[in-house]
Amino acid sequence: MARPDIWHRRFYVHPIQRKYLYLSLVPLIICSLAIIVLTFLPMQLLLTGRASELDKAMAASCLSALGSRLWPALFVSMLLAAILSVFASHALGGPLYRLETIGKRLAAGEFTTPIRVREGDDLQGMAAVLDQAVGNLRDALARIREQEGVARARLGALQGELAKGQVPPVTLSGHLQEIEAQLEGIEETLRPFRI
């Protein structure tokens, strides 16, 4: 599936993207608090302690300069980390959303939808494996349905002959063997699946 251009994309924020957003912001907030404590606390102690007026004036000017530069830098870095987290995890969130949608369709019994993700997204390997698994299930169900239809038709024919009362034992045995062959075909189709 080709990736649409930036103006036609519909952005969906998957819960896993929110999780990564929180996981990236929490360490940033902790680091910011550590920087604030380690930077401002010693200078604040210098201002309130027994230091010369020259040292206090120098600490106050450094504190003012740090405060005017550090707060915007911390805010901008947290904002950039949050935005980058959402965009970086979009290659994971988009495929997860599509796989969930397809999983709901599969749970409802719809096996016709192929599992595809956009080119360049993460989870392409997983989508290919799931698509192959669904294809195998689709083929197995089609073979079972076909064999079940043949067995049902042979049972109907046998019932019709029994109703007429004209079934020689050889014919009855032949019909039963044909039906048994169809049931063995269904069993063979189901053999690879561990249910």
List the helices and strands and how they pair.
Blueprint: H1 15-48, H2 53-107, H3 124-164, H4 169-190
Descriptive overview:
There is one protein chain. The chain is 78% helix and 0% strand. It has helices at 15-48, 53-107, 124-164, 169-190. The protein is an all-alpha fold and 195 residues long. α1 (15-48) runs antiparallel to α2 (53-107) and α3 runs antiparallel to α4. The mean pLDDT is 76. The two termini are 33 Å apart.
Supply database-style keywords.
about 200 residues; mainly alpha; about 80% helix
> What integer is the average pLDDT?
76
End-to-end C-alpha gap: 33 Å
SSE ordering: HHHH
Structural class: mainly alpha
Total number of beta strands:
0
Q: Helical region count?
A: 4
Low-confidence stretches: none
* Biggest pleated sheet: none
**So what's the overall shape?**
rod-shaped
Beta-strand fraction estimate? under 5%
Cα gyration radius (Å): 35 Å
- Percent helix, as a range, is over 70%
TL;DR?
It is built from 4 helices and no strands. It is mainly α and 195 residues long. The mean pLDDT is 76.
